[in-house]
Amino acid sequence: MRAFGFLSFGHYGNSFGSQARTAADMIRQAVEIGVGAEELGVNGAYFRVHHFARQQAAPIPLLTAIAAKTKRIEVGTGVIDMRYENPLHLAEEAAALDVIADGRLALGISRGSPETALRGYEAFGYTGSTDPRGADIARAKFDLFLRAIEGERLAPGNPDHVGRGQMLAIEPQSPTLRDHIWWGSATRDSAEWTGRLGLNMMSSTALVEDTGQPFHELQAEQILRFREAYRAAGHTGAPRVSVSRSIIPLVNELDVAYFGHRGGAESRDSRGMMDGFRATSGRTYAAEPDRLIEELKQDQAIALADTLMLTIPSQLGPDYNLHILESFAKHVAPALGWKPNTEGPVTGDPIA
Questions:
Q1: Percent of the chain that is helix, strand, coil (3-state, to 5)
Q2: What residue stretches are annotated with the Luciferase-like domain (predicted)?
Q3: Mean pLDDT (whole number) for 167-196
Q4: Measured between alpha carbons, how far is 193 from 214 in angstroms, rounded to an integer?
């Protein structure tokens, strides 16, 4: 691990203790946390995307606002659900965001996780899927998205404006954008697919597999398979890899009051069903800094990844969330190899 950022689910609502009761609260506080995190040396500000729910659903305006107010912190998603997207419109917006952010973009995309709406992407107008979970249209749209950001001429030109036989590419184009695309991988097979495409890989706090291994070991195998597929496909870059964890340093009485109980059942991996598949979810880490360092050093996936995303309790407001990030930056991250954003952008590991 060389870098860490925060991953916000963007919840808002009138639950007890919530400081993000409206969408406006959530969005404005997200910008405040992003700006404050940069000042702490945090490397990334990442946001989950869900539809038909009281969560973040339109990340591009939010990321643009954070990018425009900062200079060093990476902005990104974890992840955009491609089933709900127009691939060419997303390609245009992503290119513009990449330019505004001066390359500080980590755009995580995937088929998406279970949503509150049943086949909600059909309400967005995207029909024709023969897969109960929409994976087929997600992959097809993602292929078109990649072709668009690579500059392929996809639309016939109007002969009254551009002459006969002309084909047009989307605009704007950002030459660095493809290097900043990540696929959110939930299995070892999809990790290999991501490697063959030469993309970066995001791996979350859950995998849609259950081999009986501890979660961190299964995720470490996923990362190694990704890198081997990347190498075998002939790619010669230095792909990025991120993993997500729930980690709370307990440094004061308020931390203990909020999260001290997480030392029970939640401190173990869990197994169950997710989206019709057996799944393995990683544990929650909530402890004093010295104990956290000892436990996190045993996490094989964190050791293999260049970036660690900390899920944050966004409804507790900017001050408390920045306190969590500061505690991790001050008391835990240096012992894991962290380099603050003042030391330059994060890089992946070269594939030999």
A1: 45, 20, 40
A2: 20-248
A3: 96
A4: 23
Half-sphere exposure of 100 (CA within 13 A, CB side): 19
Distance of alpha carbon 51 from alpha carbon 116, whole angstroms: 8
pLDDT of residue 256: 96
- Residue 207: the pLDDT is 87
pTM: 0.95
User: Which residue in the block uniquely carries the two structure tokens 């409804």?
Assistant: 315
**CATH at residue 85:** 3.20.20.30
Q: For the sheet containing 206-207, what is the strand order?
A: 206-207, 277-281, 270-274
> Both tokens of residue 299?
């996490």
Is 345 within the bounds of a domain? no
Q: Which two tokens stand for residue 141?
A: 């749209």
C-beta atoms surrounding 265 within 10 Å: 10
Cα separation of 82 and 58, whole Å?
13
Q: What is the pLDDT of residues 36-79, one digit of tens each?
A: 999 999 999 999 999 999 999 999 999 999 999 999 999 999 99
User: Is 260 in a helix, a strand, or coil?
Assistant: helix
Supply the pLDDT for residue 36. Answer: 98
Band the pLDDT of 323: cuts 50, 70, 90. very high
- DSSP, collapsed to helix, strand or coil, labels residue 233 as coil
Strands (E), 82-166: 105-110, 155-156
Is 243 inside a domain boundary? yes
pLDDT, tens only, 91-133: 999 999 999 999 999 999 998 888 899 999 999 999 999 998 8
d(CA 190, CA 201): 10
Half-sphere exposure of 283 (CA within 13 A, CB side): 21
**Nearest Cα to Cα of residue 247 among 286, 282, 278:** 286
Domains in the chain: how many in total? 1
Q: Is 348 within the bounds of a domain?
A: no
Strand partners, 45: 6, 75
Q: How far apart are CA 235 and CA 304, in angstroms?
A: 19
Say whether the peptide bond before residue 79 is cis (omega within 30 degrees of 0). yes
Tell me which residue range forms the domain holding 15: 3-154+169-336
Residue 347: φ, ψ to 5°: -120, 155
